[in-house]
């Protein structure tokens, strides 16, 4: 019997809600019996309810916020082999390749010779194969560690494209490699330009030009000879040049392409800009800490900076801040490098600090920002010219503090600002950091919402403007051809 005072419409709403709840619970439990999902029915139910009701239950819900997918994990390994595999508990042999019709982005990738990519890592062509077998971890050469790793973006993107057509590899279906360039949204150029610069930019022995410069010349010649490049003048091509000095000789000749960069610090605006190009995060070099990281009271250091202090260009501010902050009792501001276990010590320092200073150096950006994020240390960004990855979908003000350089060098300004951020506000930023940290993780195979997936999503968002430019350029081409009698 209906409870007295309850309107019929509300009673019907309650009945439908309870029925939906029970249906989702038991159907998820049934499905989990036939899948390799590591999550309980309750976890699946929680994820479904949160994602399907959040915008109805929270009128202030941000529509541009990226929610953390339930399936995401934080991976600390720097190698391409995933930790904990090989126990025989799961079978991915039946996992199909991604259906091109389901993918958001279809990508054609040139089969460049290995000297442009994995050959730079010592991989040697086997049986006339251009690529390593990505379903065999033993055939994938590891990327060099240390600071080399921070600019390894093209390595992870190339592996992800190769795996998109390889059965048995679990990965998102955001992007898929296609064999016909006319079917592609964009064309990917698999040149490991950052590695080429880091390892081969100096002339060795009897060489007249460096290997890096030689490869850049061969790449320009190759691209300009391709119908795909000539068809659009390279406007639908994607080239990764994450190290600020990579592709130094070829960048002007290939400037019509979309670049994937760390920042625009060493590029003229006509060659690289935010309208045309993609900003990708550095690969962090410190280990990602647990989500159960130290809270406000357990972080005794107010502000942390360790790195090179004397820099040129916009980085002179580091020296000014050093003399302002070095004697503050709860501020750690010191010189540091990767030598002498420096990376590990920096990670420990960040994990013990409430705020981590990300100050402009030789270029507007540095890996320090992303090391801070994975240590759940609220970044303080003092770099007026910085461009940030995925800022069209991420609101960095939710988990970062921005300070103009002119204000930061005022005596007492920075310390007063940071000490004025109380526990509640800091904890909100700290909580948000833990929610978005997976967007800055590079790994193979890639996972939904990780750095690799986010870069493909960013490229996908650029394709509309790419097509617009291409179509505008065609406005008078047909009439010009008719005028010439063709």
UniProtKB/TrEMBL annotation:
The domain of life for this entry's organism is Eukaryota
Q: Where is the Exostosin GT47 domain?
A: 103-416
User: Where are the annotated segments for Disordered?
Assistant: 77-96
Q: What keywords sit in the KW lines?
A: Glycosyltransferase, Golgi apparatus, Membrane, Signal-anchor, Transferase, Transmembrane, Transmembrane helix
Q: Where found, per UniProt?
A: Golgi apparatus membrane
Its Gene Ontology cellular component terms are: Golgi membrane
The record's section on InterPro entries has: Exostosin, Exostosin_GT47
Q: How does it sit in the membrane?
A: Single-pass type II membrane protein
**Membrane-crossing residue ranges in chain numbering:** 12-32
Q: What are this entry's molecular-function GO terms?
A: glycosyltransferase activity
Q: Which family does it belong to?
A: Belongs to the glycosyltransferase 47 family.
Protein name, UniProt field: Probable arabinosyltransferase ARAD1
Name the species this protein comes from: Punica granatum (Pomegranate)
Q: What is the lineage of its organism?
A: Eukaryota, Viridiplantae, Streptophyta, Embryophyta, Tracheophyta
